[in-house]
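User: I'm writing a tutorial on reading structure tokens. Could you give me a worked example: one chain, its sequence, then its tokens, then a sentence or two explaining what the tokens reveal?
Assistant: Sure. Here is the example chain.
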Amino acid sequence: MQSSHYYKKREGGGIQINFRGKTLFDKFERVNQPITLALLSDHWAKKITVAHDLVLSGEMVENIVFDFNGLDPQRFYHRAQLMLREEGFLNFTAYESGSGGRLHLYVHKGHTTLGEGCQLAKTLSAKLAQKLPQQWRVFPSFDLPPEFNILVVPYGVYAKERGTGWSKHM
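And here are its predicted structure tokens:
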């Protein structure tokens, strides 16, 4: 997580932005201060809403993130983990975010350029869409302005997959 700065949710509707013929509303403002434990505690207590930047300095990304907002998060996670294992991704974590039924699935890729990360995100999303109705957005994305490649800090761990420990049970 990029910890040198964070984004705080604004009161009201946000600032209107026109991007590629679309009207978007930026509900978050950038704060150029490090994320602190006190700030995260207020976020987890739902006093404020804090988001973090997915794009690191130097136009690099560490994670591909699926933002699922659908009806069956358990089914989504199951299908996603099978697809990710098949594609060779063994390090990923799903987090609960916001309201019930909303998941953020972070797929750890390591240092990757922003262009390669966006292309990989589109490819993984298309492969998953073959198995499930699309009820997610994927990040990073060139379809959004750079300041929209942010996500709300997760509230808790839903499920975690690390390494190849699962394969001994197959």
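What the tokens reveal: The chain has a mean pLDDT of 86. Helices lie at 37-44, 73-86, 114-129.
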